[in-house]
Design a protein that fits this description.
The complex is a heterodimer. By secondary structure, chain A is mainly α. Chain A contains 9 helices and no strands. Chain B contains 5 helices and no strands. Helix content of chain B is about 75%, strand content about 0%. The chains are: A mainly alpha, B mainly alpha.
């Protein structure tokens, strides 16, 4: 079933009918994307993995309310975003807000001898200075390809807010990457 | 990276590609496979819980019905086992227990008190 050409809609219909195997395939298909979005929200890989795991439990419990005629991806991603927010609240994660741009570490690291390490560091710092919602909106739009309307539904904000978030996040990222002298 | 217009809807492919690579981890495929297993386990666990939730009250109700039916049938006709046990001490006790008359109840209480 893993490499079968079965569509998400077909799998979702089976999952709604109680097929655990179909649900498993759906989750596997969307897990990497969900992991990236959760990491963008939480800025921590372990927390992101926990959030995705929480999300899959929530998704299964909500499958009987899912409309298989609608795309599974945005629905599941909304659950992931909510799971990340819940996890953040539970653990009182305040990392983003606690790292003001002016005091973010720009000193040397063991990896600074390569352009790749510099880029990773710049991306980490730039993402950390963005408010969580802007970060998530940017990743959902530019990295994962969701449209503004889908993201608005996922985040529970107006479409205009998503447009604004993506715009400001891009500008901040461009400034951060431009300041390192490349890729901007 | 282009598209600094707030009102455009297109993706910034270059930034998106950078972010995707940055947020991905080397073990993403293994993670996805593990999530599939966890999803199936979670779904099946939930399914069993649902079955148990639906079945246990049914089994309890069936047990009550059987007990009531057994009592009704047992009290309404002579019991061969009781008859065959007559003559022994155990048989006497069983006979007393199955005797629904007030005298039988008093006798049973007296035997139990002894």
């Amino acid at each position: 079933m893993r490499n079968s050409p079965v569509t998400d809609a077909e799998l979702a219909a089976q999952a709604c009918g109680g097929s655990s195997e179909a649900f498993g395939v759906l989750v596997e298909r969307h897990a990497e994307r969900a992991r990236r979005v959760a990491r963008a929200a939480l800025l921590d890989q372990q927390d992101a993995d926990d959030a995705v795991q929480d999300a899959l439990f929530s998704a299964w419990r909500a499958m009987d309310r899912f409309d298989p005629a609608r795309p599974f991806g945005p629905w599941f991603m909304r659950i992931v975003v909510n799971a990340a927010a819940d996890l953040r609240r539970r653990r009182k994660l305040r990392r983003t807000e606690e790292i003001p741009a002016a005091t973010a570490d720009t000193g040397s690291t063991p990896d600074r001898d390569t352009d790749r390490a510099l880029l990773r560091e710049a991306l980490d710092q730039a993402l950390a200075t963005l408010p969580e919602r802007r970060r998530v909106a940017l990743v959902l739009h530019d990295a994962e390809g969701y449209v503004h309307e889908e993201i608005a539904t996922m985040l529970g904000v107006p479409v205009g807010t998503v447009r604004s978030d993506v715009f400001h996040a891009r500008r901040a990222m461009r400034a951060a990457l431009g300041s390192m002298g490349g890729n901007g | 990276m282009t598209d600094l217009n707030e009102f455009t809807t297109g993706r910034d492919e270059e930034l998106g590609s950078l972010l995707r690579a940055h947020l991905s981890a080397p073990d993403d495929a293994a993670f996805a496979a593990r999530m599939r297993i966890e999803a199936i386990a979670a779904a099946e666990d939930t399914a069993w819980r649902s079955v148990a939730r639906g079945t246990l009250p049914g089994l309890a109700a069936a047990a009550v019905v059987l007990a009531v039916l057994g009592a009704a049938l047992g009290g309404g006709s002579p019991q061969p086992a009781t008859r065959s046990a007559s003559g022994s001490a155990a048989g006497s006790l069983v006979e007393l227990a199955s005797d629904t008359s007030p005298a039988g109840s008093v006798a049973l209480l007296a035997v139990m008190a002894y």
